[in-house]
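G., the chain you wanted modeled:
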Amino acid sequence: MATAKKANPKLWEKAKRQAKAKMGGKHSARAMQLATQLYKKMGGKYVGKKPTAKTNSLKKWTKQDWGYSKKDTPGQGGKGVYLPKAKRAKLKSTAAGRKKLAAAERKKAAATRAGKQYSRHGLAKGTSLKKKTTKRKKRTTTRKKKA
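Predicted structure as tokens:
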């Protein structure tokens, strides 16, 4: 799969530094999305085939319209759990979904208070854009007992 490459690596590094600084100093998908915008605004060009939503996970992620389940604040972060728009809407549409969402929000809030960036709330299951690798099953052999 051929994708476009940045024609000016130094400019790209500058854009990444600025984006990370704006996003609280952390590397994240949002920061790289902002870095791409800054790179283009600074006159950065690409060489090669333009990526599509099928060939580029950042484009797929952008298309999914990720956001917070509660209030989204400008700058770094928001309230609630971070999920794709369709998943948030589906959860908010039923009582059982709202209950799951509230439990996940409590779990995320507790993890945040404990200084953790991530929490395993289970709602993001199935939203990963990473290709699933197939694991080989281990062969099990049965041993015959000696008589």
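The chain has a mean pLDDT of 80.

Shout if anything looks off.
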